[in-house]
Design goal:
CATH architecture of one domain: 2-Layer Sandwich
Order of helices and strands: HEEEHEHE
Helix content: 25-40%
Distance between the termini: 109 Å
CATH topology of one domain: Nucleotidyltransferase, domain 5
Strand content: 5-15%
Structural class: alpha/beta
Radius of gyration: 40 Å
Shape: rod-shaped
């Protein structure tokens, strides 16, 4: 008994139209959700200002710290490396100045302790405005 007589077997085929539709939807989704980053320069017009020259330079006390720890206030050597005596020398140098600034010029080879001693002496003398002098460029 041949039950398959008269039935033709159809070859399977792949329908590409739904696949193309799906790919178009994905492409549109990706194009809409993608952020485009531009790597460019900003065109800036910066403002310019001309300031008046400084009328009066603030009072400065120059404190030099040598490599071996010796301290000089201005051009005169300090009486001692002790913070209490050094603060008395700084207070005497600041006498008559309004809000003096202490500028520490420490040698590159000076120990941290000698520089900290100068900072402690400035604190004891009541001089709060302390800055460090630096040099630009290589020697």
């Amino acid at each position: 008994m041949n039950f398959r007589r008269g039935t033709h077997r159809e070859e399977p085929e792949i329908n590409f139209i739904p696949l193309v539709d799906l790919l178009l939807v994905i492409l549109i989704f990706l194009m809409v959700t993608t952020t485009y980053a531009r790597h460019g320069e900003l065109q800036l017009n910066l403002p310019s200002a001309a300031g008046a020259p400084q009328q009066q330079r603030p009072a400065e006390i120059m404190v030099a710290v040598a490599r071996d720890g010796r301290v000089a206030i201005g051009d005169a050597p300090a009486s001692s490396r002790d913070a209490a005596r050094l603060s008395a020398d700084l207070a005497a140098a600041a006498q008559g100045m309004s809000e003096p600034r202490v500028i520490v010029q420490a040698d590159a080879g000076a120990t941290h302790q000698s520089v900290i001693g100068v900072l402690e002496a400035a604190r004891l003398a009541g001089l709060a405005r302390v800055s460090f002098a630096t040099q630009t460029g290589a020697r």
